[in-house]
Design a protein that fits this description.
- The structure holds 2 protein chains of 2 kinds.
- Chain A is mainly alpha-helical.
- Chain A has one domain: ABC transporter involved in vitamin B12 uptake, BtuC, CATH 1.10.3470.
- In chain A, 76% of the residues lie in helices and 0% in strands.
- The two termini of chain A are 41 Å apart.
- Chain B has 2 domains: 228 residues, P-loop containing nucleotide triphosphate hydrolases (Rossmann fold, 3-Layer(aba) Sandwich), CATH 3.40.50; 233 residues, 3-Layer(aba) Sandwich (Rossmann fold).
- In chain B, helix 4 packs across helix 5 and helix 12 packs across helix 13.
- Chain B is globular.
- The chains are: A mainly alpha, B alpha/beta.
- Chains A and B meet through helix 1, helix 9 and helix 10 of A and helix 10, helix 11, helix 12 and helix 13 of B.
Chain lengths: 362, 485
C-alpha cells in the first residue's frame, strides 16, 4: 500500500507542470472571485475592505465565533464526504439537500416517538442511525429513478428535494406540530439532555467533529484502497467500459447513492442534535449545506484532502457574512455570492484553460 | 462547378487520415470515392464540406482557391454534404427541417413552394407537415438532399448513402443523382460497395491509408478496384484444417437487427481451438453478431448455446460466467478508462481479494503483463497517455487468461507487423489450449492467415467459407458484394 502511494507521489513530482499550473489557476480564480465580489459590494455602496474584514472577524474574531464556524463546517464536510463517492462514479447527486432533510426528519421522528422510553445517550445514537437510514433511502430513491425509471439524477434529485421540503412543512404544521398552535418555526425543541455534549467553554461537540473527520477519512480510504472505490471510479471514468469489464454497474451506482445519502442523513442528524442547532425540525433545515458540499467537492477537484480546508473556508464565509447583516445592514447572503463567485471563477478559468489547450492541436 | 483538392493533409494525433490527397473533379460528373473503412474518405469529404479544416493543402473551385471554416460557409460556396447518419431534427416537421440553415430573415417564411417543386422534380414523396421522426431513413435522406439543393448547392457529397435504405429507395436515389449531374451539378458518391460505385459513377478514385491509390474511368474490371483498395499482394489462406474439439458456441437460426441492418437466419458452430474470422466492411453485420455472441444484444429470434448451455436472452454477466471474453473495437470508448492507470485497470479485472485492493499484487501482475505484451508504459501510466498500439496491447493484456470463447474486434488494429505476429502467437497458443476465437478484421491477409473459417458479411447477409481455399482477391470481391446480390 505504502509503495503505491509513494509511486503516485513520484509521478506527480515528475509531472511538475500540472501541479504548478493548478496552484496558479486556483490562486488566480481566488483573486478573480474577490475582485467580482468587491465590484458587487461597491455597487451596493459598501466598502469591500470593510466587508471582507467584517467577514473575517465574524468568523474568527472570538472563540465562540470560531466554535460557530466549526458547527457549520461539519454538516458541509459530511455532505462533501458523501458527494466524493457519487462524483467519483460520475453522478450529480443534486438531491443531497433532500437527503439531509430526510435524515433530519427520520432522526426527529425517532426521538419524538421514543423520547420517554430510552435513556438520552442511547436515543441519540439510535437517532443517528435513523438519520443515516432516512438519507440513504432518499438517496437510493434518486438512484433507483435513474437506473430503472431513466430519470436523470439531476432532475430526480431536484424533484425529491422539493418533496422532502414539503414533507417537513406538512410535519411541522400537521402531525408533529407544537402543542397548541403549529408554526413554521418548527417542532417542539428537544430538551438539553438530547443535545450533543459540547466542550467546556467551546460550544462544539467532539462527537460532531469526529463524525465529520471519520467520514471523510473513510470515504477517502474506500475510494483509494477498496475494490468498491476502484469500481466507482471506473464507472465514473467510462461507464460503458466498466460494464463490459463485468462490473455490476447498477448495484454500484445504487450503493454510491445510498452511501452519499447516508452521510447526508447523518448531517441532518447533526443539524437536529448538534450544539448550535435549534434542536427541532423546521422547514429548510438543510440550509443549503448540501449544495455547498457540491461546490466544495467541485472546487477540491474530487480530492478528499482539499475538501477539508475548502469546506472549512466555506463555513467561515457563511458564518462570517452574518456580521454584514448585523453591523452594516447588508444582506448576509453576500457570503453566498462570494462562494458562488469562487466556483464560477474556477470554472471559467478551467474552461479557458481547456480551450487554450485545444488550440495548439488544431 | 469544378472541384480540385490539392495535397490535402489532415492528421488526428499520430493518425494521418489524409496524407497528401490530390483530386480533380470536373463539373457535371458523378464521381465515386471508394475505399475501405478508415481509408480517409469521410475525413476528406468533411474537409471539402467545411466540417474540418485541413492541416495543409488547398481547395479550388473553378480554379479559384477557397477557404471555409464551417459547413455554413461551405454551403454558401455551393458545397453540401449528406452525412452517413442523418443530421436532422426528428422532432421537427419536414418543412421546418427544409428551412433550417436557409439564410436571411428572423421570421420563418413557411412557403412550401420551393420544397414541393424540388420533391416533384425528383419524384420524392415528402409531406411538408409530417414529422421527421415518422420518416424512414431513405425519406430522411431525400429530405436532406432536397434541403441542400434548396440552399443552392452545386456540389453534392453523399457519404455512404445506401447503407440503410431499401433497394427501391436506392433506385430512386440513383435516379435523382443522375438527374442532378445532367443539370451540370457535381455529385461525389462515397462508398465502399464496389458494385454500386461501378454501376453508378462515371469516374472513380480509390483511397487507401489516407492516399489516393488510383483513379479510373468507368467501366473497369472489379479486380482492378479490389487491388487498389487492398493492395497488390494475393495470398492464400495459411491455416491448415486441423481437428477441433467439442462445440463451444452454437448459433441456431439467429436473427439480429438494429435500426439500420438485419442479419437473418444465421447458424454457426464454433469448436474448441477453432479460429473464425469475421470479414466485411464496417457496418455489414459483424458487430451485431459479435455483440450477440457476447450477450450484449438480444437476438429477435433463434438460439445461442455456449457449451450446451442455452444462453438465449441471458444477461451479459451470465455470458462472462459461461466463459466468454469480449474485446471491443473502441479502445478509449469501450475498452479502457481514460484517467485511470494501467495498475488500476488490472486491479479492476483481476479481483483477488474480497474488499481491499492489494496494490502490490496488482503492481506485480501488471508489470508481468507489461513485459509479456511489450507495452511501452509503467504501472502508473494513465492509459490515455499510451500510444494507440500500446492501448491495443493493453486491451489484450487485460483479457482473462483462459476464456473458453474469445470475441475480439480488430485485435491487431494499429499494431506493427512484429507485434501483430507476436499477438497472434499468443492467441494461437490459447486456441491450442481449447479456446475458440472469433475476430473481426479489415485486413484481408490477417483474415486469411489466421482463421480456419471466415464469415463474410455484406449488408447483413452472411456467407461462411473455409479460409484455406480462398484467396485475397476472391475475399475482397466478396466483401465488395460479389455473389451476394
Amino acid at each position: 500500500m505504502r509503495c503505491s502511494w509513494a509511486n503516485r507521489l513520484e509521478v506527480k513530482a515528475l509531472n511538475n507542470w500540472p501541479i504548478h499550473s493548478d496552484t496558479v489557476f486556483r490562486s488566480v480564480a481566488f483573486l478573480l472571485a474577490l475582485l467580482f465580489s468587491a465590484v458587487i459590494l461597491l455597487i451596493l455602496g459598501a466598502s469591500p475592505i470593510d466587508a471582507f474584514h467584517l467577514i473575517l472577524s465574524g468568523a474568527f474574531g472570538s472563540s465562540s465565533k470560531l466554535a460557530y464556524v466549526m458547527t457549520a463546517w461539519i454538516p458541509i464536510l459530511l455532505c462533501s464526504a458523501g458527494l466524493l463517492a457519487t462524483f467519483a462514479a460520475g453522478l450529480w447527486n443534486i438531491g443531497i439537500e433532500g437527503q439531509v432533510v430526510m435524515g433530519a426528519v427520520f432522526a426527529t421522528g425517532l426521538m419524538q416517538f421514543l423520547q420517554d422510553s430510552f435513556p438520552p445517550a442511547l436515543l441519540l445514537i439510535l437517532a443517528a442511525f435513523a438519520g443515516i437510514l432516512g438519507g440513504a433511502l432518499w438517496g437510493m430513491f434518486a438512484g433507483g429513478l435513474r437506473l430503472y425509471g431513466n430519470v436523470n439524477e439531476i432532475f430526480g434529485g431536484l424533484g425529491l428535494n422539493f418533496i422532502a421540503g414539503s414533507l417537513t412543512v406538512y410535519l411541522v404544521l400537521g402531525p408533529w406540530k407544537r402543542p397548541g398552535i403549529g408554526s413554521t418555526s418548527g417542532t417542539q425543541p428537544f430538551p438539553p439532555s438530547l443535545w450533543l455534549p459540547a466542550f467546556k467553554g467551546f460550544q462544539v461537540s467532539p462527537i460532531e467533529i469526529l463524525s465529520g473527520l471519520i467520514a471523510i477519512v473513510l470515504i477517502a480510504l474506500a475510494l483509494r484502497e477498496t475494490h468498491f472505490g476502484l469500481q466507482l471510479r471506473a464507472i465514473g471514468k467510462n461507464l460503458r467500459a466498466a460494464f463490459l469489464k463485468g462490473i455490476p454497474v447498477e448495484r454500484r451506482v445504487l450503493l454510491a447513492f445510498g452511501l452519499c445519502g447516508a452521510l447526508a442523513g447523518l448531517s441532518g442528524w447533526v443539524l437536529v442534535v448538534g450544539t448550535s442547532a435549534r434542536h427541532n425540525l423546521f422547514p429548510l433545515i438543510s440550509s443549503g449545506y448540501g449544495f455547498l458540499g457540491i461546490l466544495v467537492v467541485l472546487l477540491a477537484n474530487l480530492s478528499a484532502l482539499w475538501s477539508l480546508p475548502i469546506s472549512f473556508f466555506f463555513a467561515a464565509i457563511s458564518m462570517g457574512s452574518l456580521q454584514l447583516a448585523l453591523q452594516r445592514q447588508l444582506d448576509s447572503s453576500l457570503g453566498g455570492v462570494i462562494q458562488g463567485m469562487l466556483v464560477l471563477s474556477i470554472l471559467i478559468i478551467k474552461g479557458l484553460q481547456s480551450r487554450g489547450l485545444l488550440r495548439p492541436s488544431r | 462547378m469544378k472541384v480540385e483538392l490539392k495535397d490535402i493533409h489532415k492528421h488526428f494525433g499520430s493518425i494521418r487520415a489524409n496524407d497528401g490527397v490530390t483530386l480533380s473533379i470536373e463539373s457535371g460528373t458523378l464521381y465515386g470515392l471508394l475505399g475501405e473503412n478508415g481509408a480517409g474518405k469521410s475525413t476528406l469529404m468533411k474537409v471539402l464540406s467545411g466540417f474540418l479544416t485541413p492541416d495543409r493543402g488547398e481547395i479550388l473551385f473553378d480554379g479559384k482557391p477557397v477557404r471555409f471554416n464551417s459547413p455554413e460557409e461551405a454551403v454558401a460556396m455551393g458545397v453540401g454534404m449528406l452525412h452517413q447518419d442523418p443530421l436532422d431534427f426528428p422532432t421537427l416537421r419536414v418543412i421546418d427541417n427544409f428551412l433550417l440553415g436557409s439564410p436571411g430573415n428572423w421570421l420563418l417564411d413557411r412557403n412550401r413552394r420551393r420544397l414541393i417543386e424540388l420533391t416533384i422534380q425528383f419524384d420524392f414523396k415528402l409531406d411538408p407537415n409530417a414529422f421527421v421522426s415518422d420518416l424512414s431513413i431513405g425519406e430522411r435522406q431525400q429530405l436532406e438532399i432536397t434541403r441542400l439543393l434548396g440552399l443552392g448547392v452545386n456540389v453534392l457529397i453523399l457519404d455512404e448513402p445506401t447503407t440503410a435504405i431499401s433497394a427501391q429507395q436506392r433506385e430512386k436515389l440513383f435516379q435523382a443523382l443522375r438527374q442532378l449531374t445532367e443539370q451540370g451539378k457535381t455529385v461525389i458518391f462515397v462508398s465502399h460497395k464496389l458494385e454500386e460505385v461501378k454501376s453508378l459513377c462515371s469516374k472513380v478514385a480509390v483511397l487507401a491509408h489516407g492516399k489516393v491509390t488510383g483513379e479510373v474511368k468507368m467501366p473497369c474490371q472489379t479486380e482492378d478496384l479490389v487491388q487498389m483498395m487492398f493492395g497488390q499482394k494475393i495470398t492464400v489462406g495459411k491455416r491448415l484444417a486441423v481437428k477441433f474439439g467439442n462445440s463451444v458456441l452454437e448459433l441456431e437460426n439467429l436473427t439480429i437487427s438494429d435500426w439500420r441492418l438485419e442479419v437473418k437466419g444465421l447458424s454457426l458452430r464454433a469448436r474448441e481451438g477453432e479460429v473464425i474470422g469475421l470479414a466485411g466492411l464496417e457496418g455489414s453485420g459483424q458487430h451485431l453478431v459479435m455483440r450477440t455472441c457476447a450477450g450484449l444484444l438480444k437476438p429477435s429470434s433463434g438460439r445461442i448455446r455456449i457449451f450446451d448451455q442455452d444462453m438465449t436472452g441471458r444477461a451479459y454477466r451470465d455470458f462472462i460466467k459461461a466463459g466468454i471474453a469480449y474485446m471491443p473495437a473502441g479502445r478509449l470508448e469501450e475498452g479502457l478508462m481514460a484517467g485511470m492507470t494501467l495498475r488500476e485497470h488490472i486491479a479492476l479485472v483481476e479481483k483477488n481479494t474480497p474488499f481491499f485492493v492489494e496494490w502490490t499484487i496488482a503492481t506485480k501482475e501488471i508489470s508481468q503483463r507489461i513485459q509479456e505484451y511489450n507495452i511501452k508504459g509503467k504501472p502508473e501510466t494513465p492509459v490515455e497517455e499510451l500510444s494507440g498500439g500500446n492501448q491495443q496491447r493493453t486491451l489484450l493484456a487485460l483479457l482473462p487468461r483462459n476464456p473458453r470463447l474469445l470475441l475480439m474486434e480488430h485485435p491487431t488494429r494499429g499494431l506493427d507487423m512484429e507485434s501483430t505476429e507476436y499477438i497472434w502467437k499468443l492467441l494461437s497458443e490459447r486456441a491450442q489450449q481449447g479456446t475458440a476465437i472469433l475476430f473481426t478484421s479489415s485486413d484481408l491477409d490477417e483474415l486469411l492467415d489466421r482463421s480456419d473459417r471466415m464469415m463474410i458479411f455484406f449488408g447483413g447477409k452472411v456467407r461462411i467459407t473455409e479460409s484455406h481455399n480462398t484467396n485475397a482477391l476472391q475475399l475482397g470481391e466478396s466483401i465488395g458484394g460479389k455473389g451476394f446480390e
